[in-house]
Amino acid sequence: MTTPAISVVMTAYNAVDVLPDALDSLSGQSFTDVEFIIVDDGSTDATADIIQTYADKDQRLRPLLCAENRGIVAAVTDGLAMARAPLIARADSDDIHLPERLAIQHAYMAEHPDIDLL
Predict the structure, then answer these.
(1) How far apart are CA 118 and CA 108, in angstroms?
(2) Which of 35, 59, 60, 64 could cross-link 4 (Cys pair, CB 3.0–4.6 Å)?
(3) 74 CB contacts (<8 Å, ≥6 apart)?
């Protein structure tokens, strides 16, 4: 497994109504050297099933399915611990990402190595 350029860390909790659109917008990114770490924070609905279905179709998606809800800080921390890339992009389960988001952000970071946070 090669190291991706960007790790996207998304957290989700009981997000069946919004998660498919968010995942579709991530998988449709023009920048493809990426891994998607999707953390289900112990949802009580079918959120984990949706995440697993997408992971089965896209090897870039790495699910982390938590047994209990511990809150967004713990979920993000767990997702960050899984990240392998030198750049991290954060996302929430209700975010819709324009197709060029990651390409633009990656290019900016490459041109401005003195920038730590974008």
Answers:
(1) 9
(2) 35
(3) 41
